[in-house]
Design brief:
Elements: E1 2-5, E2 8-11, H1 17-28, H2 35-52, H3 68-85, H4 91-109
Antiparallel strand pairs: 1-2
Helix pairs in contact: 1-2, 2-3, 2-4, 3-4
């Protein structure tokens, strides 16, 4: 079962790890060509993965889950993605946000993602 989002489809909670990793890999292929756009897409993947794991990413007060620093890291990267979409983020900021999102993704996915 899937839900609509991110210009396409997101797996529902319980869908296998391979689907999440496939989505990450698909976007990661675009990192060299347009890192600003890819950053926003990676942030959306991580957002949906956090939601699937029960984290309250849309509640600015509650962080939910066992590791609230994952939500804080995601939120900081999301802010960088929003600045990047406006052309207001440095290359270093975009790169750090990508690394942070990868770290959150890897933590939630249980094994290293493909990007």
């Amino acid at each position: 079962m899937t839900s609509v989002g991110f210009g396409g489809i997101f797996p529902e909670p319980g869908i296998d790890l391979h689907e999440w990793q496939s989505m990450w890999a698909s976007v990661a292929e675009d990192l060299d060509g347009d890192p600003d756009a890819a950053l926003g897409q990676l942030a959306e993947i991580v957002r949906h993965l956090l939601l699937a794991h029960g984290y309250a990413v849309d509640d600015p007060v509650a962080s939910g889950g066992a590791e609230p620093e994952l939500v804080a890291t995601y939120r900081a990267a999301r802010e960088s993605a929003e600045r990047a979409e406006l052309g207001a983020a440095s290359r270093a900021e975009v790169q750090l946000a990508i690394e942070d999102l990868r770290s959150v993704f890897d933590s939630l996915a249980g094994e290293p993602g493909p990007a």
